[in-house]
Amino acid sequence: MRTILVFGLPGSGKTTFAAKLKELFGDRAIHFNGDEFRKTYNDWDFSEEGRRRQAERMRNAALNAHAEGKYAILDFICPKAEYRDLIEADYEVYMTIPPVRDYPDTTAMFEQPNRSFVWDIESYEESDRSVLDLYSLIMEENYDYNAPTALMIGRFQPFHAGHKALFLKALEKHGQVCIAVRDMPQDENNPFTSFEVTEKIRKELIGYVGKFEVIILPNIVDVVYGRDVGWTVSKIDLPPEVEAISATEIRKNMKQLNLNFPNDFDGAHQVGGVNDQTPKIYESPDKGKTVYERDFGAAPSTRRVVKTSIQQQWNITYSYEDPIPM
Questions:
Q1: pTM of this prediction?
Q2: Domains plus CATH for the chain?
């Protein structure tokens, strides 16, 4: 188990960051907030002695969380290096967003961190990205390179609902999956760089971090083996409506919308998803202001405006950087 310390001046976004991180961990982590601790113990002593006592409480809370088999997220000012040393956090996140309120005594005693491994968060935009990055980094520690693992090789241009369904089947069968992205020359059929593809896959599979690895391979065109290699090549059959999802069709739909490969893709067009019965295509030419739905393979003229959250209605695979704002 790991301890994550989120510290910084009052009003710098500590609790917001910690709460988002806790949301990703779910019941695998406990979020301890410094203000709530002071309320619980009715201890409003902000002297150095009182602040050290607060740090000791937070450290003990983390140890108790570990005893329960849970990650600990500590969210408090923790102004001095000696308090941070007392915590012995595995990950330290320093919030440097300009504080919305100022306490001169706290500002005066606050010591800047000097450790190279501290995450330095300077804006709310960076905060949102770093929450995902930190969560992924921590959970990837659970990936076991010696455990039996399934291998998926593909271009994933783009990664869509069919790919995710295949991933889930492979995960169910073997418990771990290595997704290998072929490094293709960019053209109309390969609008994304291999790096962009890997980033999209990681975001799409954020709920399975620690159970998969994404790597980039050369442009593999043949897999060869001799005899008794100790592994097999298997085809997993998926439901017809899932197998019908086509990256070629997705790219064609993007072209019909006159999107500029690949720059207009992020935030401008949803590649598709499936419900229990019929494959659907979701599009947003105005970058999220209006979301359209149409049957897979149907003409763009048949699309319908979606008035409620499609994320609640369908199993959507988003293939751009951020979900469509609803």
A1: 0.62
A2: 3-142 (3.40.50.300), 150-217 (3.40.50.620), 240-317 (no CATH)
